[in-house]
Amino acid sequence: MKSSSLAWYVAVACIGGSLCMGPVVQADSPTKVKTNSPVSAAVVTQAQPAQPVTVTAVKNDGVSATTNNTVTNNVVANDVAAQEALNQKQQYQAETETMGLLWMRTSAEYRALAYQGYNVAMNAVKMAVTDPSHQRKPLAIVLDADETVVDNTKLMGESIVNGNGRFDAPWWRQAVYQGKSQAMPGAVEFLNEVHKQGVEIFYVSNRYAPVNLDVTIQNFKELGFPSVDKDHVLLFEKDSDKQPRFDMIAKKYYVIVYMGDNAGDFPIGTKR
Predict the structure, then answer these.
(1) What angle do CA 199, 203, 204 make, to 5 degrees?
(2) What DSSP string runs through 183-198?
């Protein structure tokens, strides 16, 4: 998934809202404990040859025990402070993600921006189809999948309701494996119109292929997306950098437009 921004881009035009992460709260530095050097037994022996030796040993044991207790208490206190700081950070993250998901799930503006993005891309496709200078190669568009043509905010919202505010890689792979991603507003109509224009469609996603390729193809077919097969759904296998997959497509096709919600979804040499 995308550790991820929920911004949505078409080419260089941002049409969505980014989620801001809060500052990391750091625990205080461990307290340095200073102790006095124990009195040397040899020095005490010179003043009082017998008993003070034993007394000095008792003092040293007491100082040592006090020092050890102080250090232990400080370590425990710092561990507690660090855990509290982590909890605060995770709570802030959960709250900001909740607000972002609420906007994406309920706002009319988000739906309008999605349609606007597809309309911009469709205009570029129609212009390319009628431009004879592009006819040396077949035409294609390259798309990211998640939060570009498929919507996972329902899954994320359900996860938050169940107490999870951290969308890490294990959670993401399991969520995608359910095959319940929904189509973005206007995505089905846009993709099928592109297909009618005779333009190839490539879904270049960093979903993990060994786990999620088959379920992704099945999910996309059920949503009514065209050009859904192993030649057109190119998922992450060994390298999350999409550039090699972009280059492979560009050797055979003239790519009209790239669409995605992350800098790595575009051919700018960015590794995501």
Answers:
(1) 125
(2) EPTTHHHHHHHHHHTT
pTM over 0.85: no
Residues in the chain: 272
Tokens of residue 120, six digits: 């911009």
**Residue 200, both tokens:** 């190839």
Residue 92: which residues within 8 A CB-CB, separation 6 or more?
A: 22
Q: Give CA–CA dist 159/152, Å, rounded.
A: 11
At 200, is the secondary structure helix, strand, or coil? Answer: strand
In angstroms, rounded to a whole number, what is the distance separating the alpha carbons of residues 260 and 242?
12
* DSSP-assigned letter for residue 7: -
- Cβ pair 96, 168 in contact under 8 A: no
Contact 40, 52 (CB under 8 A): no
Q: Chunked in runs of 10, what are the mean pLDDT values of the chain (272 residues)?
A: 42 34 34 37 36 45 57 70 80 71 90 96 96 86 97 86 73 89 97 97 96 96 98 94 95 96 86 52
Q: What is the DSSP letter of 146?
A: B
Distance CA 148, CA 212 (A): 17
Tokens of 185: 């507003």
Q: Which long-range contacts (CB under 8 A, 24 or more apart) does 217-225 make?
A: 218/179, 219/150, 219/179, 219/180, 219/181, 220/145, 220/150, 222/179, 223/150, 223/181, 223/182, 223/183, 223/187, 223/188, 224/183, 224/188, 224/192, 225/149, 225/183, 225/187, 225/188, 225/191, 225/201
